[in-house]
Amino acid sequence: MAVKEFKFSGLGPTGQPVQGTVFAATKRAATQKVNTLAEKHGFRTRTVSQRQVFSYKVRHPNGKIVQGEQKAFSAEEISSALSKMGLEVIKVQKKFLTYQRKPPQQDMIMFVRLSANLLKEKLPFDEVLNLLVNDVSSTSLKQVIRDLNADLKAGMEAQQAFMKHQHMLGKFTAYMLGIASRSGNMSEIYEATARFLERQNEFRKSIKSAMTTPAITVLFLMLAFVWYIWYIFPQTAGLFEGFNIELPPLTRKTLAFSHWLDLNYGWVFLVMVVTIGGWVVFARTQKGTFLIHKNLIRIPVIGSLLHKLNIEIFCRVFSVLYSGSGDNITVIKIAAEACGNAYMEHRIKTVTVPMMVAQGAELVRSMEASGVFTQMALARFRSGSETGNVRNSALQMADYYEAETTLKLRGAVEGIQTAVAIIITVAICFLTVISSEIALISPSSTDIMGV
């Protein structure tokens, strides 16, 4: 859910004005946060207003009329700012439809990659943002960059500024870019984040390209198969039903299925729609995502591939954050969130982290207890713990699994294509057998005269 900015005002115990900002998903949540602050610091809340998008129309001194949009907490705030610039304010009103699409992944990658390259050239970050805001094609990402630039110039902490836009940038990306400014190795973290996004995008594109053609092929095969069984086949084989002769078993059963479809096609369609719709809704729930991710990594061949990809991402994020932060618990939590598997994230957060915090267990034993890491990954982390070089061990594990998953993905694609070819062959053989049975039916002259 999008994180929104709210400004509150109030009066202190001695009547002095109090104001500040909080971030929350809804106004109700923001009000609760403000009330908690009021109880803690002893002030009385007066107003809580959300920062929203306003459209304005102004007239320049040369007579030119200009329209635009700006975020603010009130229309009066924008009118005052425009008037101070010497502009005649014609109209300022709140926009009710302010939905912004999430920036395309390619634009996100370009933003982080170019930022990493420019930071390597020792450019100040505010100049980096000013350069990139003109090159980004996504309107929503441009607005995010403008907001980031404004917040940072206003003195807001970088991590807070980036986390404001986690619904647009992604939680992992926002966190990584936020901590980069206080890590001491800003360009390195941007480089690692760019590589992570590129790797993630490459894998998704590979899976998509591998599955699109087989999925379309199977879909059209099913439609053609149903059309033949339901419409074409009864037109030919149904002619022999009136001869009162015994039909071959496969032909008889196929005709019976065709007649059943004639009587129940409405119910069949309804059940299919409800089943598919219910599955989509369930998959989008937290519990549905958890169960799907839990069983996804157990699927033969492709499950192992996805599992190793999740571990690769965990290790890569762990190695980057471990080098810039001494808080191992926070590092493990962020790496778990970034791995992309809700089941693995849950096990790491509910088993590994509590063992380390409450029981003081070592890293490798806690990771092994979660049951989501491979023996090879555990062995590398164990070796790193013994030598005092956990970061390099995690990075080596990530590089190894990246190479392995890249090679195995090609084999998986070939396996999927082979499976689709087998399905097509079986379907063609079935239709050939049915057609052969019809060709072998030869009613006698007595049967025909009887009709």
Could you explain how this protein is built, in words?
This protein is mainly alpha-helical. The protein is 69% helix and 10% strand. The protein has 18 helices and six strands. The strands form two sheets. Strands 2-1-3 form a three-stranded antiparallel β-sheet, with helices on one face. The chain has a three-stranded antiparallel β-sheet with strand order 5-4-6, with helices on one face. Strand 1 and strand 2 form a beta hairpin. Helix 9 runs parallel beside helix 17. It is extended and about 105 Å long. 23% of the residues are buried.
Mean pLDDT: 81
Poorly predicted residue ranges: none
Q: Could you describe the largest sheet, including whether it forms a barrel?
A: 3 strands, antiparallel
Element pattern in H and E: EEHEEEHEHHHHHHHHHHHHHHHH
Overall spatial form: extended
Counting H and I runs of at least 4 residues, what is the number of helices? 18
Residue fraction in strands: 5-15%
Write out the strand line-up for the largest beta sheet, numbering strands in chain order. Answer: 2-1-3
Going by helix content, strand content and strand pairing, the class is mainly alpha
